[in-house]
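PROTOCOL LOG
Step 1. Enter all chains and additional molecules of the complex.
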Amino acid sequence: MMRPLAAFLGLLALLSPAAAEVRGVVLDAPSPIAPFVLEAHDGSPFTQDDLAGHWSLVFLGYTHCPDVCPFTLANLAAVRSEMSQLMRPESLPQIVFLAVDPARDRPLLAAYVEHFDIAFTGVTGAREGIDGFTTSLDGFYRLEKKGPDDDAYAVTHSAAVSLINPAGEIVAKLSPPFAPFETANYINRVMRTGQAD
Amino acid sequence: MNRLAATAASLALVLAAAASPAASAEKSPLTASHMVAPAPPPGVNTMAIYGTLHNEGDAPLVLTGIEAAGFASAMLHETVTTDGIVTMRHRMAIEIGPGETVAFAPGGIHIMLMNPTGAVAPGETIAGVLRLGDGSAVIFEATITGKAPMEMRKGHEGMAHKADGAS
Ligand SMILES: [Cu+2]
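Step 2. Run joint prediction.
Step 3. Record the structure below.
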């Protein structure tokens, strides 16, 4: 019996309390991304030029992340889907996952990003490229490797998602949680007006 | 997954839990509900179980350990975000006060599973045991889902508080 359940869920949605807040900050001045060289999950090069000409959302993490990365990526897939109600498909932001643990991430990256959304771009590569892009994002990561044989280490990393404009500059930062509907509307407003409200 | 092996492992866990002194005699005041484990992306050997633990009793309970059939390791973990930086720490014990509910949710406390011994497929279940400080144990089942949940722990609901004698 699906109908009563669907009706119930619809009711719940109507009754749900005040819309979830979005924890976002629009930067006072756009922050440029310095040149870097990385590799996309399909093996093609990925540089700062791949951020030009369209909007992007960038999240930094690692594939063996059990909690925050899958949560964030599942939400970003839902955000992108919500945004498809607000704009033409070609205007949708590219979603980029910067994988900072290449030793373990590189072999899994293509299947990993596809698990969340086939439109996602996973990028990783040499430490220099990862660190360069991380610095431009004002991000942080640290591999918590306990020794050369430790292959079950966690990675401490920043939680933020950066919104990058078609000039390749960061214009806003979002922090979790990423409630899909509200986040989509927030990003849409920033894309259209440069303001959060 | 090799269903026979998984079933045998689950059964062994459940029998071991039942053999502990407090579990067989009376129903535990600790209940575990809505236990779900999003299937990991291909090749990833870590995942989390989320859900709701509730202490129906009138005395504080301390969760001290976790076991899960079909995984080399299961631990109580907490994701901590400080100044926008996310890290995970191992929790040795989580106190649940009388009448208190602790939400295991993304960005907060979770059961961390590592190195599954077989395939992990959506729709299947993971049998687990929660170990309490008084030597008792509670059996639970978590459903493996296809996707990560999209709600985070809210405010402080997900934090285990010190039992408040006045409440
Ligand atoms: Cu964990």
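Step 4. Note key features.
Strands of chain A lie at 23-32, 37-40, 45-47, 56-61, 94-99, 121-124, 141-143, 155-158, 161-164, 169-175.
Chain A touches chain B through 31 residues (CB under 8 Å).
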